[in-house]
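Entry 14: structure prediction run for dTDP-4-dehydrorhamnose 3,5-epimerase. Input pasted below.
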Amino acid sequence: MILDQLPLAGAYNVRWSASRDQRGAFGRLFCAESFAKAGLVSQWAQTNLSRSSARGTLRGMHYQTAPFAETKLLVCLTGRIFDVLVDMRPRSASFGRWISLTLDGALGDGVYIPAGIAHGFQTLSEDVMLHYSHSHPYRPAHQAGLHYGDPDLAIDWPLTPVAVSERDRALPCFSRVTDDLQKERAPQ
Ligand SMILES: Cc1cn([C@H]2C[C@H](O)[C@@H](COP(=O)(O)OP(=O)(O)O[C@H]3O[C@H](C)C(=O)[C@H](O)[C@H]3O)O2)c(=O)[nH]c1=O
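Run finished. Output tokens:
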């Protein structure tokens, strides 16, 4: 796999550099040694599989709060998604900035999402399957998120969102969440 730094510090596009032959293709999605050498998380507490049926399905924006803030390695297995990362790290130069990238299951595209980043995606095709590796276990009490339609973030979703969960519809806007985070940014 090939790690390409993204505009948010510590985030990477993880490209599947497969060996191809007459049978098809084979390649690594993750390597503890390579990830540790690159200073990335190299141990996972949990993996998840996410399946979305309809084109336009929107999930997010999610993150876990401390002490269960999690790093994620997401790999697109089938279909295509518009993937979005929002920097929630109070001391980051890109605090409050969002970036997007398209992940294609046919290419085995992945993204490495460091702790402190809110993550969400919208499917660009039907029948999308994603594989998640999480650095920390799931803790419902530490589940947090941002509203995908936050006017301050103005995330440029490519399609009209469909199949948004009630939980995601009720998530707060960035300005409400960051009041506390801004206090963290203030010089000590
Ligand atoms: C993450 C997780 C969820 N669940 C349960 C909780 C809900 O009853 C159900 C669906 O969870 P949720 O609605 O959070 O699933 P998504 O909306 O797809 O969230 C996921 O997609 C967004 C974009 C992410 O980045 C999150 O890391 C990931 O949680 O599975 C578990 O039982 N274990 C788990 O580890």
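Notes: Residues 2-17+27-181 form a domain with the Jelly Rolls fold (CATH 2.60.120.10). Will compare against the previous run tomorrow.
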